[in-house]
Amino acid sequence: xxxxxxxxxxxxxxxxxxxxxxxxxxxxxxxxxxxxxxxxxxxxxxxxxxxxxxxxxxxxxxxxxxxxxxxxxxxxxxxxxxxxxxxxxxxxxxxxxxxxxxxxxxxxxxxxxxxxxxxxxxxxxxxxxxxxxxxxxxxxxxxxxxxxxxxxxxxxxxxxxxxxxxxxxxxxxxxxxxxxxxxxxxxxxxxxxxxxxxxxxxxxxxxxxxxxxxxxxxxxxxxxxxxxxxxxxxxxxxxxxxxxxxxxxxxxxxxxxxxxxxxxxxxxxxxxxxxxxxxxxxxxxxxxxxxxxxxxxxxxxxxxxxxxxxxxxxxxxxxxxxxxxxxxxxxxxxxxxxxxxxxxxxxxxxxxxxxxxxxxxxxxxxxxxxxxxxxxxxxxxxxxxxxxxxxxxxxxxxxxxxxxxxxxxxxxxxxxxxxxxxxxxxxxxxxxxxxxxxxxxxxxxxxxxxxxxxxxxxxxxxxxxxxxxxxxxx
Length: 474
Hints:
Elements: H1 2-9, H2 12-31, E1 50-54, E2 58-64, E3 72-78, E4 84-92, E5 97-98, E6 106-110, E7 115-116, E8 119-123, E9 145-151, E10 159-164, E11 175-178, E12 184-186, E13 193-194, E14 196-199, H3 203-206, E15 209-214, E16 219-220, E17 227-232, E18 238-248, H4 254-259, E19 262-268, E20 278-279, E21 285-287, E22 295-296, E23 306-307, E24 313-318, E25 324-329, H5 336-341, E26 346-348, E27 356-357, E28 361-363, E29 365-371, E30 389-393, E31 401-406, E32 412-418, E33 423-429, E34 434-439, E35 452-460, E36 465-472
Antiparallel strand pairs: 1-10, 2-9, 2-11, 3-8, 3-10, 3-14, 4-5, 4-6, 4-9, 7-8, 10-13, 11-12, 15-29, 16-25, 17-24, 17-26, 18-22, 18-23, 18-25, 18-29, 19-20, 19-21, 19-24, 25-28, 26-27, 30-31, 31-34, 32-33, 32-35, 35-36
């Protein structure tokens, strides 16, 4: 007996350490979410006493048109003391159903302890649903959202959800559905509208906007990948606050998932190559992803990197083979904004493995930031000869590219780099004040360079540098 007791005691230190790890993780997460006021979201649309009995394995969906970023939502519910699901969805008006090309925006499971006087309040903390955006993002989100409330458990009691059977015409009508089939149909009545509220939050929440976006997420990236690198540009100067990624549930067990979580970095691709660029500020930190099939994010960046319009960056996301991110399938019919601002996706299968292209895919991502004026944006320090200017033509090109420059000093080197930062071609020039150099569109060994994104980088003896990018099409 004593022998068995002594053997059990050997596990206590491990259990204590495991408890401290989870407590620390919880503390980190709680510090990243500011304490927000507990006031209900006012005004509540259709604040009447009509009650809809939501039976077990049934749900209600209320589409709405957001006029602002969504910090929190509330519903009037007479709880049946069940565990229920609350979602915020992107809504496809043409199909009258959730947008099937992208995961839910937010997901919560809750019970009666979350209620305030028959109101359910869902606060999104430091990650509001950002609906404001710059005018030329690559793959913008749909303009309409929906609140989805379901009683998905087959053994649950009913929930009473308040609604107006003849609600305001300015708000779309509510729909009901079975959680088994997912088929939605209008709730009975002239124009039923659920009693709900949407809160914009404070000025900081309203200052956020989508600086870049690939909203479509119709393909999965499996866990054989260790890390992804997605080049991008922003159409205006912004201070980056956080990034969001579309994710499927992980295969890994919860301990591995939370302890061995991934990393998120922003790279200045113009200063190097994909996977070898210079991190902006101190933007490298552990990223604790939420293991739910939704648009999810990471812990706060230690700093908010400033992104300049027209400058090449890349989002580096390390999944450690645990997270299954989603991507957009490229059709070849993408908009010019998409083609110009979203580069080729690359990945690697291990920390020492080479970067390889992932053809036909773009990482589903949402870059969230706040606007900056040109005065706010830090510029690279000027060095002697920093007046070097470089231009490329034609761009895009079907073959040869002319590189023209001015403002150089002394000799100069010119390099053509592919999207992974590998040198393809180049030359050393004896006089760099001004001139013109022809890249034939071939690599140094004479083979025709494949179509894609390339960077032309020039450096002179005085320390001046200039980088431009060119797209080669065949």
